[in-house]
Amino acid sequence: MRRWRATAGVAAMLTLATGACQRSAEPQAPEPREPSRQAPTAATEAKSSPTLAAVRQRGRLNCGVHEGLVGFAYTDNRGAWRGFDVDFCRATAAAIFGDPDAVRFVPLTTEQRFEALRDGRVDVLWRNTSWTMSRDTGAQLSFAGINYYDGQGFMVRRALNLSSAAELNGARICVQSGSTTELNVEDYFRRRGIEYRPVVVATEGEARQAYAREECDAFTADISALAAARTTLPNPQQHVILPDVISKEPLGPVVRSGDDRWTAVIRWTLNALILAEELGVTRANAADMGKNSADPRVRRLLGDEGDFGPSLDLSRTWAKDAVSAGGNYGEIFNRNLGSQSSLDLERGLNAQWSSRPSGLIYGLPVR
C-alpha cells in the first residue's frame, strides 16, 4: 500500500508537470488581480457636482434671498445687500472662490422662491424658508441644514392690552397667502374653537402694510419677521409681540434635489461657521489660528491638517475663507439680529449647544 501511494504520487506530479508545459506553449490570459485593499481616497469616491461646475464656469454664485426683510436680507441706503442670510451667501461664495463678493443676490417672493430654484435661476436659497416634510419629500428640494430656529407668533397694538393670542376671538388677522403661516394660524384657532377673520394678502410686505393701516387687529408671521416689521413702524414701542409661539419654524438653506455634492458644499459651509464659533475662530483671528493653535479640531477646520476641503472639491482653506468673509455664526447673528442690531433678538434656541443657557445650534465635526 505504501508503494502504491508513492507511485501514484510520482505519476500525479508528472501529469501536472506535463500539463504545465503544454499550457505554457499556449497564449495565457492575464490572471485576475485581487482588488486593492487600500481605502479609496475622498477624491476618487467623490462625484463632481454639476451645480458647482456651473457656478465656477459662471464666475459667481446666484443666491436667492428675501426681497426685503430687515435683519435677514435688505439693501441699505447705498444699495448694498445686508443681513443674516446675505452673510451666509457671502460665506458660501468665499468657500467656493475665496471671494465673498463673487455672488449675485436674487430677491424672491415666497411664491417665486422654489420655482426659481428648480428652474436654475438661483443655485441656493439662503432665504428664511421652513423645513417641512412636504417640501423635503415632494417638491424636488433638499434642505442642507438649519441656520435659524424660529416660530410663528402674533404682533398687536399695545393699546389692546392683550396677554395671549387666545384673547383674539373674532379678531382680524393679517396673514400672507400661500405660506405655512396661513396654515399654522388656521390650525391654531381651529384647535381652540376660536373664531377669527383672516385678512389674506399676497406678500409679507403687504401684510405689514395692512397692519400699519389698521386693516387688521393682529399680524402673524415668524417671530423674527415680526421683530423686523416692528422696526419699520412709525412708533415701534406702541406694538408688542405676544408670548405665544404656535409653530416650529426651522429655517435653513435649500438646494435642488439630485446633486448631493452641492448639498454637501452648502451643508458644510453652514457647519463650518457654527463650529468656528464653538472653537473660538473669528473673522479677526481665522488667518492665524490654524497655524498657531494646538487644537487639532481648529487645524482641521482651517485647512492646516487634512484634505477636508478637497473632499468637497474646494480648496484646503475653504472654511477659513468662509469665516473670514463675515465672521463665525455668532458674529453673523449678533451683527444682524442680536445685540448689535435694531432687532436686538436674544439667541434663545439659536445659542450654541455648549453655551449657558444652551441652545440647539450644533456644528458637525470636521474629521
From TrEMBL:
Q: Please list where the region (Disordered) is annotated.
A: 22-51
Q: Does the keyword Transport apply?
A: yes
* Annotated ranges, domain Solute-binding protein family 3/N-terminal: 60-289
Polar residues: bias regions: 38-51
Q: Which UniProt keywords apply?
A: Signal, Transport
Tell me where on the tree of life, at the top rank, the source sits: Bacteria
Q: Which SMART domains match?
A: PBPb
InterPro entries, per the entry: Bact_solute-bind_prot3, Solute-binding_3/MltF_N
Q: Which family does it belong to?
A: Belongs to the bacterial solute-binding protein 3 family.
Which PANTHER family does this UniProt record tie to the protein? AMINO ACID ABC TRANSPORTER PERMEASE (PTHR30085), AMINO-ACID ABC TRANSPORTER-BINDING PROTEIN YHDW-RELATED (PTHR30085:SF7)
Record-given protein name: Amino acid ABC transporter substrate-binding protein
Native source species = Brevundimonas diminuta (Pseudomonas diminuta)
